[in-house]
Write a structure and sequence with these properties.
alpha/beta, Rossmann fold, 2 domains, 4-stranded parallel sheet
């Protein structure tokens, strides 16, 4: 059976650990200039319905460094943009490429793509999940903290796709997570239900609150994202009102542990969800985070294709 990565729930705790170990190994090989062309001759098809900086460049670079090749497929490059079905697109691409990475809007679209694909499908982002981001995040936390189990991650902001994947990912590996979201912006019930099941197995704790101060208190990691994501521009004024008091500034960060790190999946809007002194300060690891997308995704590609 073909293995896909559509959400963090497609991985077991041991598989997450194996991917992180492989990512760390491949990162060291790159730093030492050691060749690691584990996917020589392999091709990755990359479907983009949304624009991207980190996802496109990291996956394309990953395939190059692994000895393979990546093909960028924008909606204007595919018949999918002119009415061909997702199923027919999946069936066709499966005959050409060794794996498909897709960055789409509706999560149901990537599920449909995987259903009809004979090669692994990787979720590069949907409105509901962003597993590749979470794997890069876990790698970053592990590098800076030396462990994952028992740490507390505080999420401050929208209960969005990144928050969803962190809820699932943290609870898979035994991390505690406290998410502070404005009323009406909490994570979906079905995500919380699954995260609670994970937490019961791993021994981690989940807290959902409307109070950023409560969430950040005693945290090892403080994490935020933009208040207005792609496709939500029409809601900007309302969202900026609703998210008042949720900016991660130095005062809020001070409630975390003294050695807490700050994370942001980027792109960032300074003076909105985060103050400049935090994201550009000494506790910010956002550039390590961005780099680790490359290493984590290389590990995912090797995991799925070898």
């Amino acid at each position: 059976m073909v293995k896909h990565l559509l959400s963090m729930q497609d991985l077991s705790p041991k598989e997450v650990e194996a991917i992180l170990d492989k990512a760390a190994e491949l990162k060291q090989k790159l730093r030492k200039g050691e060749p690691h062309e584990l996917l020589h001759g392999k091709t990755l098809g990359m479907i983009f319905a949304k624009p991207s900086t980190r996802t496109r460049v990291s996956f394309e670079t990953a395939m190059t460094q692994l000895g393979g090749h990546a093909i960028y497929l924008g909606m204007g490059d595919l018949q999918l943009g002119r009415g061909e079905t997702i199923a027919d697109t999946a069936r066709t691409l499966s005959r050409y490429v060794d794996a498909i990475m897709a960055r789409l809007f509706g999560h149901e679209d990537i599920v449909e793509l995987a259903r009809h694909s004979n090669v692994p499908v990787i979720n590069g982002l949907t409105n509901t999940h962003h597993p590749c981001q979470t794997l890069g995040d876990l790698l970053t936390i592990l590098e800076h903290k030396g462990k994952l189990r028992g740490l507390k991650l505080a999420w401050v902001g929208d209960g969005n796709n990144v928050c969803n994947s962190l809820l699932l990912g943290c609870t898979l590996v035994g991390m505690n997570i406290s998410a502070a979201c404005p009323r009406g912006y909490e994570p979906p019930a079905e995500i919380l239900t699954q995260a609670q099941k994970n937490a019961k197995k791993s021994g981690s704790k989940i807290e959902i609150t409307n109070d950023p101060n409560k969430a950040v208190a005693g945290a090892d990691v403080v994490y935020t994202d933009v208040f207005v994501s792609m496709g939500q521009e029409a809601e900007r004024e309302k969202r900026m009102r609703d998210f008042k008091g949720f900016q991660v500034d130095s005062k809020l960060l001070a409630r975390a542990k003294k050695d807490a790190i700050f994370m942001h999946c980027l792109p960032a809007h300074r003076s909105e969800e985060v103050s400049p002194e935090v994201i550009d300060g000494p506790r910010s690891v956002v550039w390590d985070q961005a780099e680790n997308r490359l290493h984590a995704q290389k590990a995912v590609l090797v995991f799925l294709l070898t």
